[in-house]
User: What shape does this take?
Amino acid sequence: MTRNKKKFKELSPKQQVAAIVSMVIALVIVGAAERDLHRRPEDEVRGEKWIWRLVCLNAAGAVAYLRFGRRR
Assistant: This one.
């Protein structure tokens, strides 16, 4: 089963805008998680910081950290 992947240039203008917006949102979420992780003391993080840094390499991991990885 093969998927026909479209190149970015083959997408409609609306699809191109949606792709760019979703990438920017993902980068903002990852950036916010990494910044929080950098500034937060170790005793306020659930688990090891280096593990959370690996998890935060994508938006889903960053959301998980922001939701579950911090102590209040």
